[in-house]
Amino acid sequence: MNDYPMLRLIVRYGSLGCIALAVLVFAAIAWLGFSALGGLAIVLGALTGIVVYLLSRSYVELVRLITDMLLPK
């Protein structure tokens, strides 16, 4: 695993990265869209944050599965 630093980073910090990315997306949409959409921007930000979390979490799980199956320990 020492030959693949990005895979090691994703395996180690992937869960925290998913949460951080989802919160960042939610905050950006809520902050940028609040003046135009009001409370709807918060709802859209929350829904988008959930989708981003689920997609990024599936990517992290896929990388963990690949590293577990294919890389020697």
Features:
0% strand, 2 helices, 73 residues, mainly alpha, single chain, elongated
Commentary on this structure:
The protein has 73 residues and is mostly helical. The chain has one domain (5-70). Helices cover 89% and strands 0% of the residues. The protein contains two helices and no strands. The longest helix has 33 residues, at 5-37.
What's the arrangement of secondary structure elements?
Blueprint: H1 5-37, H2 39-70
Helix pairs in contact: 1-2
Low-confidence stretches: none
What is the mean pLDDT?
93
* Overall number of strands: 0
Supply the helix-strand structural class. mainly alpha
* Helix fraction by DSSP (H/I, runs of at least 4): over 70%
Order of secondary-structure elements: HH
Radius of gyration: 16 Å
Tally of individual helices? 2
Quick recap:
By secondary structure, the protein is mainly α.
